[in-house]
Amino acid sequence: MWGADLRDAVFEPTNLPTLEWTAEAQHLELTTYYKNPGPLTQLRKQCQDASYHEQERAITCALNRGEAERDSPIERWFKRIAFDYTCQYGLTPGRPLRIVLCLWLFFSFVYAVFMHQPGPSGIYFIGSRVWRGRSNTQGIQIRPRAIRATNWWKFPFLWLRREWRVLRAAMFFSLMSAFNIGFRDINFGRWLRLLTKREYDLKAVGWARTVSGFQSLLSVYLIALWVLTYFGRPFG
Questions:
Q1: Does the pTM exceed 0.85?
Q2: Which residue range forms the structural domain that includes residue 71?
Q3: Segments in 181-206 forming alpha helices (H)
Q4: What is the pLDDT of residues 22-48, one digit of tens each?
Q5: S-S: 64 plus which of 59, 89, 102, 138, CB 3.0-4.6 Å?
Q6: Angle (nearest 5°) at CA 90 between 69 and 7
């Protein structure tokens, strides 16, 4: 078993091999079983007792994958998308955070596209303005500004500066949507707004609001999954 490649191997021995040798085997997470998951379960317990934490997570992944293959097609695909692709049943606990980062960048470009589209759907700047001793709340839709006629060689720089401002606002709104998490006095979205120089808020309207809600749900799920897999063993 020392250095053996256990990819797609059926692990159902009568007697467990030496733990030190098995721990050095490769692709434990791709091991499977035919009928009896007992030997894999016992091997995981031995790894846990001997503090082989990486091997323990790999065997947990193999057991959950084997169990999922015996479920109905709908359950199997649900577990694959929700647990396997996201964190490999706890084998890669840092992957959910990387997915959140990728989603943040992806949705930033989506919101930037909304800002360029005509119509009321988009991102609005909500701020307060004092006028004649009264504070008035105003909502202004964020749109790219028109570029004034100028020398042809200046146009690319002005266009890049305009698009950077739009993308910067979209990235900040995407970050607020990703961390729109609140529990009692803990509110990450409010803490992010405190980092700005002015007191304002960004609100989504129309389809942009629907996309923002979808991003928030995905991010909350992935962050919760990261916390559970990094600090615990939710899959066994």
A1: no
A2: 19-92
A3: 188-193
A4: 888 888 898 988 888 898 899 899 988
A5: 89
A6: 50
